[in-house]
Amino acid sequence: MTTTLPRTPHPVPGTQLPDARGRFGDFGGAFVPEILHPVLMEVKEAWQSIQGDKAFWTEHRRLLRDYVGRPTPLTRADRLAERIGARGPIYLKREDLCHTGAHKINNAIGQVQLAMRMGKKRIIAETGAGQHGVATATACALFGVECVVYMGEEDIHRQNLNVQRMKLLGAEVRSAMSGSRTLKDATNEAFRDWVSNPHDTHYIIGSVVGPHPYPALVRDFHRIIGEETRAQLLETEGRETPDVIVACVGGGSNAIGIWAPFVDDNDVILVGAEAAGEGLGPGQKHAATLSRGSLAVFHGSRSYLLQDSDGQVQEAHSISAGLDYPGVGPEHAYHKSTGRIDYRPVTDAEAMTALQLLSETEGIIPALETAHAVALLTPLAQEYPDAVVVLNCSGRGDKDMETITARLGG
Predict the structure, then answer these.
(1) Pick from 8, 37, 300, 378: most CB atoms within 10 A?
(2) Is 93 annotated in the active site?
């Protein structure tokens, strides 16, 4: 298995989008209050300045290797494959083994580097499951920067372990008390803070959502996941591309990260799992934005959004705090519109069954987010029984143990 990281990636070959206006086809853009336009332009210019900056990426990749622990392994899951009747190999891309326990640290390290370059003295972030908050607090501690993390009151209750981790790392955790008191409301509070403190504060958005250039910026920092996968598959299977890549999609950062280097390989089937919560029937609560959402401008960009008949934001629901978000990144909306990526809904119950399956067969307790992707492996094994399949194991399940235990009645 490879022990070195792929070379500095920029300029990124084959990446045509977003365009100069930050659009992915009909999606994306930058819709923000007037006071944030100059600050957003500053972020855009900083993002553009690093794209060909070999020194920036060399330092970034050094930190990923020496601090984050990359490259993460590509683990073959033979007992899982046997249990679900797959004849081809199933591989797990082990982002759960990153420092802090999830892929989020890739982006957090990169954006704090970017903030330092812009001369910002203060970092703010929003978090749902807490993994982005922990990653941001960790990166801020590493660089010695002030950190404030906004988190919904409901998520603070669900993810208490991660709240304590953020505080121990020196971050201030501020509770979002409005609305459903989840990720959407934490994001609202973070935007209000940014509007009030635009000159000394950098807002680290944790997924491929928000106004341009954030969807592309976050994608660039997570692209390493897919680049490593290509190199590792060449070593283990003698080919750079698998037949199928599966990942969970809330905002969509881990999925974009592993798919980005494969999206132009049209023979690679890309499958996304989104949270269907209680189900997609009338009156049932869910977070299936791509299955049931409609077009709107939300949190600074145009994408699919769960809305009621009056056009108001519909409260999302998922057993996974990280997927409990009514919007989705604009690049995902674009890929849905073109049919390039197959997005499928997975219920809370199906995710819990999948979590137990992976735990029992491979000794790996996945995050509830990841469990949604695991749930798609069984139907995919029926559809493509001989396929080489890669699943992005986006995070570990320690943070979800209270929710899991309550659900199982333990």
Answers:
(1) 300
(2) no
Catalytic residue among 44, 104, 120, 184: 104
104 is catalytic: yes
For residue 401, give the 3-state DSSP assignment. helix
State whether residue 363 is helix, strand or coil.
Answer: coil
At a CB cut-off of 8 Å and minimum separation 6, what does 334 contact?
17, 24, 25, 26, 27, 28
- Write down the catalytic residue from 253, 303, 320, 394: 394
Mean pLDDT over 252-262 rounds to: 98
> Does residue 259 or residue 52 have the better pLDDT?
259
Residue ranges of domains in the chain? 70-101+223-408
Q: Which residue among 95, 120, 126, 274 is the active-site one?
A: 126
59 is an active site residue? no
Backbone dihedral region for residue 100 (phi beyond 0: left; psi -120 to 50: alpha; all else: beta): left
Taking CA atoms, 371 is separated from 92, 94, 235, 277, 337, in Å, by: 12, 13, 27, 13, 25
pLDDT class for 13, splitting at 50, 70, 90?
Answer: very low
Q: 392 phi and psi, to 5 degrees?
A: -80, 110
pLDDT in tens, 300-342: 999 999 999 899 999 899 999 889 899 999 999 999 999 999 9
What CATH number has the domain spanning 70-101+223-408?
3.40.50.1100
- Indicate the pTM of the whole model: 0.94
